[in-house]
Write a structure and sequence with these properties.
The chain contains eight helices and four strands. The protein has a four-stranded antiparallel sheet, with helices on both faces.
């Protein structure tokens, strides 16, 4: 159990308790061939509205030209820490089906797939950190996405590095206690 493990008010499966979003990634860690198959397989088996599976992923590994293009679109502090991750994955929602019919749950479904991916990644010893702070239009332009393909978030994935490498302000956030709304406040009705 790490000091970042969630302090839960009821037992949950270990992988959920152990998932957290670091900013310190090991800049020397690279991904062997095939290392990401498991996480995308987990995403693939997420539920989705009418089984439409609207999730798509742009997978870039540190050192590639695509990784640099994704990194360039990150905003604020994100660029500082996320460039040390072994991979930056753009999470894309297909907002219409093959016939052009709108998929109103596309972003919801994508979120579930990323959640599956995150839990699988944690179980495999990776850490992941999702980001909404990036320029959507810039990502769409950089990878020639259609108007119906929305880049919703970016996931940094890699091995945990030392918090000592972070600038002061980020190190403070990295080590701050993890907080959550009380369980009782989440349940609107519990009849
Ligand atoms: C959709 C989404 C967008 C996020 N955007 C950012 C971001 O731009 N930068 C960042 O440092 N963290 C970002 N996060 C990470 C959250 O801040 C983090 O998940 C939250 O504080 C809970 O911490 P934990 O994941 O360690 O439990 C984002 C998370 C999600 C799910």
């Amino acid at each position: 159990m790490s000091p970042r493990t969630a302090q839960t008010s009821a037992p949950v499966i270990d992988t959920i308790a152990e998932r957290w979003s670091p900013r310190s990634f090991d800049a020397d860690h690279t991904l062997p061939e095939g290392a990401l198959r498991g996480i995308f397989e987990a995403a693939r088996w997420a539920p989705s509205a009418s089984n439409t599976q609207p999730w798509r992923f742009i997978v870039t590994r540190r050192g590639s030209e695509s990784f640099a293009r994704v990194a360039e679109t990150l905003m604020g502090f994100n660029q500082q820490w996320a460039v040390n991750a072994a991979a930056l994955i753009v999470n894309v929602a297909n907002t219409v089906d093959a016939e052009g019919k709108p998929l109103p749950w596309a972003e919801y479904d994508l979120g579930q797939a990323v959640s599956h991916l995150s839990v699988q990644a944690t179980a495999e010893g990776f850490h992941v950190h999702q980001m909404g702070g990036f320029d959507r239009a810039a990502v769409a332009a950089a990878f020639g996405l259609a108007e119906t393909q929305t880049p919703v978030s970016i996931t940094a994935l890699g091995r945990l590095g030392s918090a000592d490498q972070l600038p002061d302000v980020l190190r403070e956030r990295e080590l701050a206690p993890r907080t959550r709304v009380d369980l009782d406040d989440l349940i609107l009705v519990n009849d």
